[in-house]
Amino acid sequence: MYPQIIKHKEENGVKLAAASVLKEKKSNSMSFADSDSKYLVRIVKAESQTLLYLFSEDKSKHDFKLIIYPSHTQYRITDLSKPIEILEEETIEKINIE
Fold first, then answer.
1. Could you tell me which of 53, 94, 54 has the C-alpha nearest to residue 73?
2. What is the chain's pLDDT, residue by residue, as a tens digit (98 residues)?
């Protein structure tokens, strides 16, 4: 699976924004999908943790092995109803699911 690239429509005009007095928690996310759309992996990075969510069409399978590249870090997921916490990765080029 490779990252999904989502392009946002450009709007003509000016967008104004004001800085908040309150410190807001910052987070970002990445999505990976296979070519058949059988699996979707969503990685959400927050200030204190990185969570990996796996969504699958196959409801009968309950044991997944994920390999994150280029680090070759491996994780096992047995319960799709909740995310797993993973180590923060500098770069994720692709994810294999077995």
1. 94
2. 666 555 545 555 555 555 555 656 677 889 999 888 889 999 999 888 999 999 998 888 889 999 999 999 999 999 999 999 999 888 899 999 98
Q: Where are the domains of the chain?
A: 24-97
**H or E element: which one contains 32?**
strand 28-33
- Encoded tokens for 64: 């997944």
The contacts found for 91-95 with CB under 8 angstroms, 24 or more apart, are: 92/3, 92/30, 92/32, 92/43, 92/68, 93/2, 93/69, 94/1, 94/2, 94/3, 94/32, 94/69, 95/1, 95/32, 95/41, 95/66, 95/67, 95/68, 95/69
Task: Tell me the residue type at 55.
Answer: F
